[in-house]
Amino acid sequence: MCRWMAWLGQPVLIEELLFKSPHGIVDQSLHARMGAEPTNGDGFGLGWYGTGEGPGIYRSVSPAWGDPNLRELAAHVESPLFMTHVRAAIGSPVQETNCHPFRRGNWLFVHNGFIADFHLLRRDLMLAIDPDLFADVHGSTDTEVVFHLALTFGLEEDPIGALERTVGLIEETGHRHGVANAVQASFGVADGESLYAVRYASGGDARSLFASADADAIRHLYPDNPRFQRLTRDDRLIVSEPFSDLPGVWHEIPEATSAIVRPGGVFETQPFHT
Amino acid sequence: MCRWMAWLGQPVLIEELLFKSPHGIVDQSLHARMGAEPTNGDGFGLGWYGTGEGPGIYRSVSPAWGDPNLRELAAHVESPLFMTHVRAAIGSPVQETNCHPFRRGNWLFVHNGFIADFHLLRRDLMLAIDPDLFADVHGSTDTEVVFHLALTFGLEEDPIGALERTVGLIEETGHRHGVANAVQASFGVADGESLYAVRYASGGDARSLFASADADAIRHLYPDNPRFQRLTRDDRLIVSEPFSDLPGVWHEIPEATSAIVRPGGVFETQPFHT
Amino acid sequence: MCRWMAWLGQPVLIEELLFKSPHGIVDQSLHARMGAEPTNGDGFGLGWYGTGEGPGIYRSVSPAWGDPNLRELAAHVESPLFMTHVRAAIGSPVQETNCHPFRRGNWLFVHNGFIADFHLLRRDLMLAIDPDLFADVHGSTDTEVVFHLALTFGLEEDPIGALERTVGLIEETGHRHGVANAVQASFGVADGESLYAVRYASGGDARSLFASADADAIRHLYPDNPRFQRLTRDDRLIVSEPFSDLPGVWHEIPEATSAIVRPGGVFETQPFHT
Amino acid sequence: MCRWMAWLGQPVLIEELLFKSPHGIVDQSLHARMGAEPTNGDGFGLGWYGTGEGPGIYRSVSPAWGDPNLRELAAHVESPLFMTHVRAAIGSPVQETNCHPFRRGNWLFVHNGFIADFHLLRRDLMLAIDPDLFADVHGSTDTEVVFHLALTFGLEEDPIGALERTVGLIEETGHRHGVANAVQASFGVADGESLYAVRYASGGDARSLFASADADAIRHLYPDNPRFQRLTRDDRLIVSEPFSDLPGVWHEIPEATSAIVRPGGVFETQPFHT
C-alpha cells in the first residue's frame, strides 16, 4: 500500500535516487520489503521544485518500473527538493488524479496508508473541507480528501498542527460512524523550502518511515562509498523504507511522531498529537 | 462537446453502427458537424446489454477513432441495446471515470452538454445527492453528479420525471449562485429494456438530438440500400447527429422534449418541464 | 516472465476462469508462484472465439489486476475457446503491439519464455520470415517474430511441425551467433477449433506447463465442489501454472512435449523434436 | 498528418512555445490549418537538450492538447534547443515507440509526411539499415526506418548528405516496387548544437515548412509586442506551420531545400538533391 521518498539537499539529478540507489523507490515499486504488499504498481507520481513557478508534477497510471518517461525525466531534471510516490491502490481507481503527490500552490502532499471504511466517511469528510476548496478535489482517494482537510485547517501556516487537527477530525468522524482506528498513515509534505513528515496510526502499528542519518556520520561510516562521499550536510532523505541495509545510514522515525527537515540538513522531531 | 448514440432493436454487431455507418459515432469523434467542436477526442465509452448480468461497459481515454480495442469489441459483441459516447472534455480530467456511460445496477446514462459554472455549484449539488450514493461518485464530471441526482430523485421508477426534478434542482441551485442557464443537455438513459432521451437547455438552443424514422418509412424511401432493407420495426436509433444526410431517415427531437423508445420500435415524445 | 492460460470446452463467461478461480490468471499477474518473477504487470491480452468473424482480441498495457475493462469484458463475453496472457517484459517496450496473443486470420499465439540474445539474432530471424508477412510484424517482441516464422513454416497446415521447424531455425541461428540455448518456451496456439501447446527449452528446464485432468476424474475427486461438478467431458484447460493446489486436478506437461486439445476434450501429447 | 516545431536560441521555458504562442504546436494538435488534417491527436513527443546527458524525451499516446504531464513539463523545463511533434497516424499503431522524436546518442529526428506504400517497401528498407542498428528499431513507423537509414548513411557526420542518400535509396526502392513519388517529407534533425531541416517530396508539393525571420527584423516590425521584444539574434524557430499570421515573421522554406540553423541564429539554405 504505497511507498514514498522525499529529498531535500544539494540539487541532484532525480535518477540518482530513483534509479541508481540499490533499493530506490522504483525498485520498491516492484519489490517493496516493508510494505503491506511487495508490488506498488498502480501508478506513481513525482513532484519537484526547480525551474519554473512552483513545483512540477509528473503522474502516470503505469507502474513506475516500466515507464520510459519517468526514466527520461529523472535523467534530465535536477532538483534540490522532490518527492516520489508509488501506489498500490486499495479500492479507488487507477487514474492520474488519484496519484500522489497532490498539489496546491507551492505545496505537495503524499500519503502511505488509508482511512478505514473511507466509503462510509467520505461524505462527512468532504463536507468538512472549506467550501472554496471543495471543487478542487478531482480524484477519489482518501488522501486527496486528507490534503484538502489539512489545507482547510491551516496547512500553509502550520503544517504539522493542521495535520494533527485533520487526523483528529477523521478519528472523530470515524467514531461517529462506528469506525475504530480510522487513520493509518505516513504523510509527506513539502512547501518548496522544507519537508514535513508524519508517522501515525490511530491504533498504533503505523506504516514504516525512516530518515537518513547526518551526512557526516554516513561519510565516516562508509569512507569507501563514492556515492556517500558526495553527500553534504544539507542532504536529507525521508523514505517509507530504506534504500539499503547499511547500518547507521537510516534512522527509524518513531510512531506518533512528526519530523521537519529544514535547509542546511536540520532535522527535528516531535510527538504527533491528535 | 461530446456526441452520443443509442440503439434499441434487433441484436446487431456493434461495429455496424460504430464503424460501418457513413458518419457513425466514431467518425463523429474526429469530424462532428453539429457539435460545439468537430473533435471529440478526450476518451469515449460503450455500454451494452447482452450476455452476462447487467450492462457491460468499455471506457477508454484514447480517442475513439484510434482505439484498436474498440474495433475488436465492436466486431465481436452483438447487442439489442447499447449506447456509445465520444467526449470533448471541458475542464474535467481525461480519465476513465469521467467517460460516459455512467452505470448503476441495470441503468446507463450519457450526456452531451454541461452544467454552467459547475465549479461554483459542485458542492451544493453533491450535497443534494442521497448520502448513500455519495461515495459512489468516482470521477469529477458534472454528468456523474447529474446521474446521481437523478438516481436520488427516482430515476429507477420514473426516468423522465427524475430528470425533470434534477434539472429543476440544478437550475434553482444556479439561481442561488447567480448562474443563469445552468443546464445545457441532451441526456440518454437505458435500463436494459427501453431507451429514454431528453433534449433541453435552460436558456434554449439545446444540443442537437435526432431519432431515426420508422423502419418501414426508411425502407420505402431507399429500396436499393441493403443496410436499410435489413431494418425491422423493432429498430430505433437516437443520435446527437445523423449518421447520413439522407432525407426522411432522421427526425429532429424538438427542444424541451423527452422521448421514449420501447421494445417493438415504439417511439413517444412529450414536453420536458423543469 | 509471463503466464498464460487457454480454455477449450463448453462456452463459459470468461470471468469464471480469469477472476473467479482461486489462483486464476489475473491473480497470477500479481502473485505468480512458478514463474521467473511473481509480478506479470507489463500488460496483458485476451483472445476469444465467439460472436463475429474470427477471434477478438483485447490487449492493454495496464496490469491485468487493475484494468476495469478486462473485468467488464470477462463478465459479459462467453466463449468456448479463449486464451489469456499476462506479461512480464524483459527488454521490449510495454505497448499493446507487444502484448500476446498475436493473431493472423483465425489463429492466435501466446508464448511464455524468450529467445536468448534476441538483440543479436533479430535481423537474421526477421529475414527468415516470408517476405509477404514481414510488414505485418508491428511490435518488437521475440514472440511476434516466432509467430511469423511459424506462419512461414506452415503453422496453418501443421502447427506442431511448424513450431518444431521454427525452434530448429532459431537454435541454428543462435549457434551461428554463438548463442547457446536459444529458445526457452511454452507456446500456446489456437485456430478456433483446437488448442496446441508446446513445452520446450533448448537447454532443458523449460517453463512450467500444465493441463487439467479429465473432467470425469476431477468430478470424482471433488464431489462437493460445485464449480467442478459443472465440468463436462468437453472441457480442458492448459495453464502456465495451476489455478489451485488440489491433487489430481492438474497434470504437468513434460519437457520437450507438444500437446493437442481437440473438441470433445480429446487430449494428446507427443515428443517435440527440433 | 503531423506537425512539428524546433527551437534553437536562448534558453526558454518550453511552455512559451508550446502553450503560450497563439497558434503554437499544441493548438496545432487540435486545429492545424496547413496540414493534411486539422487533427493531430495520435500521440506526441518532446525532445529537449539541457540538464543531464544527451537529450531527454517525453512521448505519449495521448493527444497533446489534453495531456497534463506535457503542461507540467513544459512549465518546468528550460531549454535552448528542443523539438516537438504532434502525430496524425496513418496506419501504424498509436504507441510511444511510434511517436517522434526518435533518438540515437545525441541526435533527435522528426518527420512530417510518409513513405508511400510503406507496407510494400518496409522489408527492403529495413535490410538496407546497418545490421548493427537493425535491432534498435523498436516501433513500426516509416519515420523510424528513415532515421536508421540516415544513421546508416552517415547522419552523424553529414546530416543533410545522409538524408539525401536516404531519400535517394527510398525513391530507388520505390521504383523497383512500382511505387512512384515514394517520399513526402519535412524532416527535422538536432544534434545538441544545431538544427537541420529538409522540405522535400518526390513528386513535388511537399509538406509546408517555415523558419522564423531574423529577430531584429521581427522586433522592428512589431515594436509593441513584448514577446517579440525578448527575442535575440540567437533565436530561430523552424515550424510546420506558422504560430501566427503576422506578416514578416515567417519565411517559407522552398521545396527541395535543406536548411541549417547554427548557434548565433545563423540560418543557411541549400538545394536538396536526391
Commentary on this structure:
Four copies of one chain form a homotetramer. Chain A has 274 residues and is an alpha+beta fold. Helix content of chain A is 27%, strand content 29%. Chain A is built from nine helices and 13 strands. The first copy, chain A, has helices spanning 15-18, 25-31, 68-76, 118-127, 131-134, 142-152, 159-176, 215-221, 226-229; strands at 3-13, 44-49, 56-60, 78-86, 102-104, 107-115, 183-190, 195-201, 210-212, 236-239, 250-252, 257-262, 266-271. In chain A, strands 3-2-4-1-10-9-11 form a seven-stranded antiparallel sheet. In chain A, strand 2 and strand 3 (56-60) form a beta hairpin. In chain A, helix 6 crosses helix 7. Chain A is globular, with a radius of gyration of 18 Å. The first copy, chain A, starts with a strand and ends with a strand. In chain A, 55% of the residues are buried. Chain B binds chain C through residues 13, 48, 50-53, 55-60, 68-69, 72-73, 75-78, 96, and chain C through 13, 48, 50-53, 55-60, 68-69, 72-73, 75-78, 96.
Concise structural overview:
Four copies of one chain form a homotetramer. Chain A is α+β, with helices and mostly antiparallel strands. Chain A is 27% helix and 29% strand.
Blueprint of the fold:
The structure is a homotetramer of 274-residue chains.
Chain A: E1 3-13, H1 15-18, H2 25-31, E2 44-49, E3 56-60, H3 68-76, E4 78-86, E5 102-104, E6 107-115, H4 118-127, H5 131-134, H6 142-152, H7 159-176, E7 183-190, E8 195-201, E9 210-212, H8 215-221, H9 226-229, E10 236-239, E11 250-252, E12 257-262, E13 266-271
Antiparallel strand pairs in A: 1-4, 1-10, 2-3, 2-4, 5-6, 6-7, 7-8, 8-12, 9-10, 9-11, 12-13
Helix pairs in contact in A: 4-6, 6-7
